Amino acid sequence: MAEITDLNDAERAWVSEILAALGRADGDIVALGAAYDAALRGWTSVSPEERPDPNELINRLGIGFGEHLRKRIGLAWVIAADEHGTELALHGQPGDVLLYPANLVAKRWVAGQTGVLPELAAALIEQVARLREQT
Question: In the chain, what are the domains?
């Protein structure tokens, strides 16, 4: 079970800065999906030994993805800590929903999947709605 804590002022400012830099403070998933696809295509077009570490980019895209979910499902940005580490996450009730947006993006990035973020967001929103109907 993860220990959930609210973001501190510095963490809130960091999330806000990333959203502003992305130009996605409104959580536009179609535009974010297009930005993700373009970034992944650009990254994979470079030879593997010359590719930069994608973690910062994945975290930024994950925050944009999470913001879309946050606004649509009524979640809050939190820090979740468990035996695997500490990570920025989204949490909400009812249903004790806990999502790790950067991890969701990272898994698709590693798999080289494009065109997936809008559908993934829609599926997660639907799953959370169903979970909450049962709660």
Answer: 3-134 (1.20.120.1090)
